[in-house]
Amino acid sequence: MKGLKNFKFLDGQQVPSKYLSPKDNLVDKINQDFLNHEQQDQLLLAWMLASMTPTIPTKMVALSTASQIWEKLHVYFASQTIAMVQKLKIQLHTPKKDRSINLYLLEIKKIVNTLSTIGSHISPDDHIETFLDCL
Q1: pLDDT tens-digit map of 80-119
Q2: Helix crossing, 32-50 with 66-93: angle to 10°?
């Protein structure tokens, strides 16, 4: 995004005015910078939709700008991440005890690593406590 200087389309804050003056508004003379921005925004929007897995674009119905799509994706994946963190934390505190110690430790390590990967770090103390609680 930075290399192509497209981030301004995602934050939605640098949209040029559609008209440069009230007179232009009356005669419907649209600012060329606005038209260029709109064209680039629509190209980025089309690229974003085309690059999504098939189920995601259905969640983007009625959105007309790249910044709207970006915000919707942010909200959608943030909620997915929160749900995943909750699920993994439950799994962390309820591991199956009918396994060998090696498999048990690997299961805990896998869950802790996954939580860390999605930004929900487990402190070393909590990691040890989880291990000891389930012994």
Answers
A1: 888 899 999 888 877 666 778 788 888 888 888 888 888 8
A2: 30
